[in-house]
């Protein structure tokens, strides 16, 4: 098996660089991928809000709160789930702030960004659940693009593989288990998640299209947000369970990221169940002449 791992050709080569130098500044591809994802999420969400009668510019007002809170939450979550990378004898504690080196966690970004969204939507006078429904597919697209940054940082890969799409990783990467044979290729989890996220965005859009065809409101009930949480949480739980990454383990050997992903998926199921319950309550009662329309 080891021999196969050594000679297997890499369809996905390891990137030779992770940044470009422009004068005294380093422009990191990781940061560019995140910025590109944010721009796409803003554009997609603005278009979806405009389609339901809200000015597209409101998404920029909300993003001014969501983005900094999201980045802060992402960094805090990463540091807390990777304490060994930052807290050890002789460690330079200032590295906790070196976000340009990589190391931000999407779950932290979601939690922090949610705080910013609540603040931003209240100031903008738009229902928070409506905004989150509008954001759902754009968020998945943004996360997909952001995974390209993980590729350049060589930080999101799974166990060794002999499959044709094996990913080459620099042998010095800290997540590679000691004793791994030279030339070993790994599952490209960044690519798996990228494709999973794009598929999830398509699923949300298709489900909304189906509801529109039946004359039902698609945004504001939490359905799209529920699908997002369920889809992303379920996929991420699987990928995190096989990811080679020194994430802090909880009791029973469960990774913190796996637990968070499962919680997200459960919350998604809860949102979908609640939206369906509200729809049944508001549905017309046959035989009573009730002309109420299901707003869900």
TrEMBL record:
Sites where the protein binds a 1,2-diacyl-sn-glycero-3-phospho-(1'-sn-glycerol): 147
Membrane topology per record: Multi-pass membrane protein
Domain of life: Bacteria
Keywords noted in UniProt: Cell membrane, Glycosyltransferase, Lipoprotein, Membrane, Transferase, Transmembrane, Transmembrane helix
Enzyme class: transferase
Record field: transmembrane: 28-46, 58-77, 97-119, 126-146, 189-209, 221-239, 259-277
Protein's pathway: Protein modification; lipoprotein biosynthesis (diacylglyceryl transfer)
UniProt keyword annotation of Cell membrane present: yes
EC number(s) given by UniProt: 2.5.1.145
Cross-referenced InterPro entries: Lgt
GO biological process, one term: lipoprotein biosynthetic process
Gene Ontology MF annotations: phosphatidylglycerol-prolipoprotein diacylglyceryl transferase activity
Described purpose of this protein according to its UniProt entry: Catalyzes the transfer of the diacylglyceryl group from phosphatidylglycerol to the sulfhydryl group of the N-terminal cysteine of a prolipoprotein, the first step in the formation of mature lipoproteins.
NCBIfam families in the cross-refs: lgt
Record family assignment: Belongs to the Lgt family.
Name listed for the protein in its UniProt record: Phosphatidylglycerol--prolipoprotein diacylglyceryl transferase
Organism of origin: Microbacterium ginsengisoli
């Amino acid at each position: 098996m080891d021999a196969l791992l050594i000679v297997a050709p890499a369809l996905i080569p390891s990137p030779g660089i992770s940044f470009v130098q422009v004068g005294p500044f380093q422009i990191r591809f990781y940061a560019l991928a995140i910025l590109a994802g944010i721009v796409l999420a803003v554009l997609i969400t603005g278009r979806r809000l405009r389609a339901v009668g809200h000015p597209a510019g409101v998404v920029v007002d909300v993003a001014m709160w969501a983005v900094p809170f999201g980045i802060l939450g992402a960094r805090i979550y990463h540091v807390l789930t990777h304490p060994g990378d930052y807290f050890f004898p002789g460690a330079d504690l200032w590295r906790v702030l070196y976000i340009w080196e990589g190391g931000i966690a999407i779950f932290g970004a979601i939690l922090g960004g949610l705080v910013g969204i609540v603040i931003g939507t209240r100031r903008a006078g738009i229902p928070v659940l409506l905004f989150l429904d509008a954001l759902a597919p754009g968020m998945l697209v943004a996360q997909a693009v952001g995974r390209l940054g993980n590729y350049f940082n060589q930080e999101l890969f799974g166990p060794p593989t002999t499959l044709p799409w094996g990913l080459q990783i620099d042998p010095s990467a800290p997540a590679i288990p000691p004793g791994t044979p030279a030339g070993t290729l790994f599952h490209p989890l960044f690519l798996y998640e990228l494709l999973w996220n794009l598929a999830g965005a398509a699923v949300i859009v298709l489900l909304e299209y189906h509801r529109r065809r039946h004359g039902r409101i698609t945004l504001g009930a939490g359905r799209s947000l529920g699908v997002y949480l369920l889809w992303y949480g379920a996929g991420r739980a699987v990928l995190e369970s096989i990811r080679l990454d020194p994430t802090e383990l909880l009791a029973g050997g469960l990774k913190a990221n796996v637990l968070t992903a499962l919680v997200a998926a459960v919350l998604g199921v809860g949102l979908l169940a609640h939206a369906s319950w509200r729809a049944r309550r508001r549905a017309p009662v046959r035989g009573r002449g009730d002309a109420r329309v299901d707003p869900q």
